[in-house]
Amino acid sequence: MKTVKILGTGCPKCKNLEANARKAIEELGIQAEVIKVDQIDQILAYNIFSTPALVIDEVVKVKGRLADVKEIKSLLN
Known about the structure:
Blueprint: E1 2-7, H1 12-28, E2 32-37, H2 40-44, E3 53-56, E4 59-63, H3 69-76
Helix pairs in contact: 1-3
């Protein structure tokens, strides 16, 4: 099972990234835990200074922009 973290403080782009990640997981039919990280100190621990960010299995894959469903699916594979 994969762990997917959405790093962001709750802005619209952060919410859209979470929705896109959930949709990508559903379309792939894989098991993944989606965790929303909104605490600034936890976000900074990933060396992220621009949100939203997508972390898969503790590796930062996307930062500072909104990834679409297709891109997230390719990152999960």
